[in-house]
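thread: overnight batch results

M.L. [08:02]
morning all. the overnight job finished for the chain we discussed friday. pasting input first so we're all looking at the same thing
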Amino acid sequence: MKLSKGIRVGVSILAAAMVLSGAPHVDDRWGFIVDPPEGWQLSPSEKGVSVTDPYQVASFQVAAFPGQRFSSAVDMGEAFFSSLEAEGDVSAFAPYGGMQAILADAAFPVEGGTVRGYFVFINGEEADYILMAYAPEEVYERYHDFLLSAIDSFAPSSDWYLYPGPIGQFYYPVEGPSRTRVDVPFEGGTLAFLLDPGEEDAAQVLIEREARVLLAYGDPPSVEAWRRYYRMVVRDEYPRFRDVSAKLSERMGGGACDVPSRLLSWFQGFAFERTGTLSDLRAPISAVRRHAGDCDALALAYLIILHHLGYDGILMVSSVYRHAMAAVDVPGDGARFPFNGGTYLVAELTDDVPMGMIAQDMSTVEHWVGVDLFP
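M.L. [08:03]
and the structure it wrote out:
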């Protein structure tokens, strides 16, 4: 499908910009959530929010409308692209429980040049959304990953926060059409669950894109950029763990008190494996399928499964120790990590030790960063 007409770019900024840092932004009028790249500046706009990079070159905007405003996503796109001359390609997809949506890659003239970017039109029952992320054409390639990352940070409500963003859903749907049985060893037997290989590929694509975004924040990266990186990974991965989490719950007896420690012992039996890519992070669902991964892949998979089973936990990462661990909100003796007013029992995924044990040469609390994956 081709677009031959364009849009009126730019939602006016109505309030002083605030620098986003530390947590996703929840719109107090419409309830949608955005978690743009660290340091981008957000301002309320007439219809939603307007976000710009620190140099005010690239822009990400969300506009929301009452659900009865448009009859379909196609109608939204046609109405939106009716005022200016532009060209682009449009493809349909169905995110968020089957809502109608289209994704457009478009370039259009503005005063002083041409801009290019991505536009998503989502037609829902209670609200319709237009997402825009664009930059001047001459720097488009430089900002490309940031534009996709910004759009992928959107969720229409808290109910959809732990779910792939629009770009992820466009690339490959959750619970894809080619789910097959996977068998992995578990406690002397076999655990079987369903997984579509295409979902593994989609998860790894997002991880590598977010690693390229993270690279812009230095080595080691800023703390909040690092936290956002892991939040983006977990959002995309979370629903991919539904089936394996349900099967593990059945096997371990639902709410049994020893679930975190039994699950930890299972992960400690995984082979240690690195990807060698820029991210050096295996998609957590792939780590479970392969029964292999490195410290942060295993810690993320462990925490995602625990969250599915009703347990609260955080990720611990350290640039000093070049290591990652989990910490879980359960009683028990041993080392506990203080975070947000509470303490969490540490869990080492890559060594056969009980919960609460941490290597003495990695025990300086100040060298660890806590990451709330489920804000």
